[in-house]
Amino acid sequence: MARQTGDVHGDLPDIPVGLMFADREDLHKSGLHNQTIAGISGTKAEGGAFSIVLNEGYEDDEDRGNEIIYTGEGKGKPEEGQERIPGKKQQGDQDMKSRGNAALQKNVESGLPVRVIRGPNGNLKYSPLQGYRYDGLYDVKEAYIEKGEAGFKMCKFRLERATVPTQDELPLHITGKGANDDYWSIDGREKLGKRRVNNPASSEPSASTSDTASQQAIQEKRREIAGKPRLGNMSFSKKKSVSN
User: Can you give the residue ranges of every domain in the chain?
Assistant: First the structure.
């Protein structure tokens, strides 16, 4: 099955809200998010970002379910020649010039939505327990810069869940660990039943006690039959006819 590029705004065919993904590699293979490491996919030239991954990327992220304050990218490491600030994830100021930040800023202007994927390390109230879950479309309402918790200037984006009539509610009941949670697979995207092949929580139902006893009885009967001579190996004397 050909990989979808994901370089489009909006939902992708055969990837419904609530579908789970085992890891970032599967997200990339499906086309839902084209970056295997970066949290923002898309560029300003393409009308804005296509998708974002929310998975505890920055300490300034705020996840409120239908509203997200998403922190931009940049300065996660010190400038050349500077020592790393101990105990701090952020090492410098951000700006709106980076590829991802410029893309999300463009979404505010273009009005194009982004696909939001939540990972297991985000706000426990809204995130899956394992894997990555597609949570639908969000509109980027604001882009601004303010001082973050580490004391540096941070690019922030306020997202609101899109009011699309056909969009399902936030799938908070899908945690990634439920036996019926559907996981994407490259050979089963069009068949819902096959999406569970990568689900670590799914397993074959255990046989009941009566089923087990029945199987044991069948096996014993087979062994009993196997120990007896077969009709094909037995000789029979021809019965003589009686004359009147």
Answer: 20-198
Distances (CA, A) of 33 to 5, 73, 215, 218: 9, 16, 48, 52
Q: State the pTM of this model.
A: 0.74
Residue 24, phi then psi, degrees to nearest 5: -65, -30
- pLDDT-derived band at 228 (thresholds 50, 70, 90) equals very low
Give the pLDDT band (50/70/90) at residue 196. very low
At the top level of CATH, which class does the domain 20-198 belong to?
mainly beta
Neighbours of 89 (CB within 10 A): 12
Contact between residue 119 and residue 29 where contact means Cβ atoms under 8 Å apart? no
User: Which string of DSSP letters, residue by residue, matches the chain?
Assistant: -PPP---SSS--TT--TT-EESSHHHHHHHTS---SS-SEEEEGGGTEEEEEEESS-STT-EE-SSEEEEE----SSPPTTPPP-TT-S--S---TTSHHHHHHHHHHHH---EEEEE-TTS-TTTS-SSSEEEEEEEEEEEEEEEE-TTSSEEEEEEEEE---TTPPPP-TT--S-STT--B--TT-TT-GGGGGGG-TT--PPPPPHHHHHHHHHHHHHHHHHHTSPPGGG---PPPPPPP-
